[in-house]
Design goal:
The chain is α/β, with parallel strands linked by helices and 377 residues long. The protein has 13 helices and 13 strands. Pyridoxal-5'-phosphate binds next to helix 3. It holds the Pfam family Aminotran_5.
């Protein structure tokens, strides 16, 4: 198999599997239990929190485990609007956020909120100035992702935080950093971001674990799940110790030779783009600069067909224009591409393990697909 769909999820390294197995086998007590076997489990969770917080550059007391990036996004948004409930009912976000953010905003619209969805330019970018121009006195939340999951565009979150601060806005700033953490600079505490969502399975961790950073200024942030008072009283539910151990081990592995890993992903992306651009008709989509995500299109060749044909040849990539009954994804639609280009958008995404052989295999499979399908156009 040639796995080139690392923005969807990543393969789980053996070391992560071993850390999870070790936790399940030997430290599986309930962290709330007071005897040593329970306290062992607590130690695993706290050590994991420390590892991830260190990589994020925040105090470990401000990092709260959740079950996934989606849960972190939903918690951040619901908590932020509750926090600002006496000030206003306006939200600013982008039209290209993950559906966890967009669907939360749509639900809030049905509850009487007004939401401004900022449109990207043709390269997929949103500027900090666009955000600031949309912010009003009654804006309670700005939600802007760090890296777009389909184009790889890196949004100016640090600059947005600075402009909001300089303008004296009281709106909270939430950043969905699910695709950005450990791929591009990410410093919520230093930037002055209030809330940041993370997910374990985008960087070698298991599925089913995420985290939310809540800034020290938000002392009374609204709890997500009432109950036994785990996660410092904000998110009850017995801690998923094995998932936490796996997430932390994955972060630890990504931190080893960090710069080299980023350079390797960027090199693989550059190689892939160069190689695929030799295929007649192939074009680059958007101007994404994240090292691990590349969007391209083969106009006239529907991406759904490409993905399933390549899948049967052992090559895993995604359709940028997800095949929801032939309709483009909301991200591809927002780019305003010609119809045939939009229908052919594919996403190739890289990991530190990606090799030139994976890219050669992708290239050959795309050439075969093109050769076999040209009669059908
Ligand atoms: N946000 C972004 C930008 C994502 O790409 C994803 C997953 O694809 C999510 C949120 C949701 O994360 P999870 O799968 O952990 O719920």
């Amino acid at each position: 198999m040639h796995y080139l769909d690392n923005a969807a999820t990543t393969l789980v390294p053996e070391e992560v599997i071993a850390a999870m197995a070790e936790t399940l086998r030997h430290h599986s007590g309930n962290p709330s239990s007071q005897y040593p076997y329970g306290q062992d489990g607590k130690a695993v969770a706290e050590k994991g929190r420390e590892t991830i917080a260190r990589a994020l550059g925040c105090p470990k007391e401000r990092l709260f485990f959740t079950s996934c990036g989606t849960e972190s996004d939903v918690w951040a948004i619901r908590g932020a609007v509750w926090h600002g409930r006496h000030r206003g009912k306006h939200i600013v976000t982008t039209a290209v956020e993950h559906s966890a953010v967009l669907e939360s905003c749509r639900w809030l619209e049905s509850e009487g909120y007004q939401v401004t969805y900022l449109k990207p330019d043709s390269t997929g970018m949103i500027s900090a100035r666009q955000v600031l121009d949309a912010v009003r006195a009654d804006t309670v939340l700005v939600s802007m992702m760090l890296v777009n999951n389909e184009t790889g565009c890196v949004f100016p979150v640090a600059e947005t935080a600075r402009l909001l601060r300089e303008a004296g806005s009281a709106a909270l700033l939430h950043c969905d950093a699910v695709q950005g953490f450990l791929k591009v600079p990410c410093d919520p505490a230093g930037w002055g971001v209030d809330l940041m969502s993370l997910s374990g399975h985008k960087l070698g961790g298991p599925k089913g674990i995420g985290a939310l950073y809540i800034s020290p200024g938000l002392r009374n942030f609204r709890p997500l799940l009432p109950g036994g008072g785990q996660e410092m009283g904000l998110r009850s539910g017995t801690e998923a110790t094995a998932q936490i151990a796996g997430f932390a081990k994955a972060v630890e592995l990504r931190m080893e030779n960090y710069d080299e890993k980023l350079r390797h992903m960027a090199d693989m992306k550059a190689l892939c783009r160069e190689k695929l651009l030799t295929i007649p008709g192939m074009v680059t989509v958007g101007g994404g600069t994240a090292p691990h995500i590349l969007a391209m299109s083969l106009p006239g060749y529907p991406s759904g067909n490409i993905v399933s044909d390549l899948g049967s040849r052992g090559i895993c990539i995604s359709a940028g224009s997800a095949c929801h009954k032939g309709k483009s994804s909301h991200v591809v639609s927002a780019l305003g591409l010609p119809k045939r280009t939009a229908a052919g958008v594919i996403r190739i995404s890289f990991a530190p393990e990606t090799s030139p052989e994976d890219i050669q295999a992708l290239y050959e499979a795309l050439r075969s697909h093109q050769a076999e399908r040209c009669g059908m156009l």
